[in-house]
Design a protein that fits this description.
magnesium (chains A, B), CRISPR-associated endoribonuclease Cas2 (chains A, B), four-stranded antiparallel β-sheet, Alpha-Beta Plaits, two-stranded antiparallel sheet, EC 3.1.-.- (chains A, B), alpha+beta, homodimer, antiviral defense (chains A, B)
Chain lengths: 100, 100
């Protein structure tokens, strides 16, 4: 997987139902790294992100739940500079977040 | 305020204490727009973002709370393309999100 193909996505969810929220969190954990309780960072190619997106659509109730996708650009763009945390932090590396 | 100066920031918080969480939400509401329960979009100049950041530091307990800042670049970069929601959505415009 070339670094040119890989993009960094921030994915945040807003789901009140415990079961659906747990299912979404488990799915996201298999693709990326948790940086906050309801925020994940996923480094992947756009095609794989599309697959994840389709899987997530089937896990949520679209009338009440919300999942936000934010495309932060290619890893080559040195996107580390675009993420910053105050308080309890987990460091984002080129290979995803590392829990400190 | 020139569009060249203004940057779009995604700000997400992870705060378990009700009082601190409410205070942070109120502060963020005065700077930007809520796109999820704990996610805001703030369009502002870097200097003003720094001021907001300092104010937020004083509102949280840095040993337990977390606030993530994600710099999405200048509005001129047409960052609308970088944000996408499935499920219950609020549309992000050039002038911030509009609740649908």
């Amino acid at each position: 997987m070339s670094r040119d193909d890989v993009r960094r996505y921030l994915i945040a969810y807003d789901i009140s139902d415990d079961v659906r929220r747990t299912n979404v969190a488990k799915k996201l954990e298999s693709y990326g790294d948790r940086v906050q309780y309801s925020v994940f960072i996923v480094d992947t190619r756009p095609a794989k992100l599309l697959r994840l997106r389709t899987q997530l659509i089937h896990l949520i109730d679209q009338s009440t739940d919300s999942i936000l996708f934010c495309n932060l650009g290619t890893l080559r763009d040195n996107q580390r500079q675009s993420l910053d945390v105050i308080g309890r932090s987990r460091t984002i590396t080129d290979h995803g977040p590392a829990i400190l």
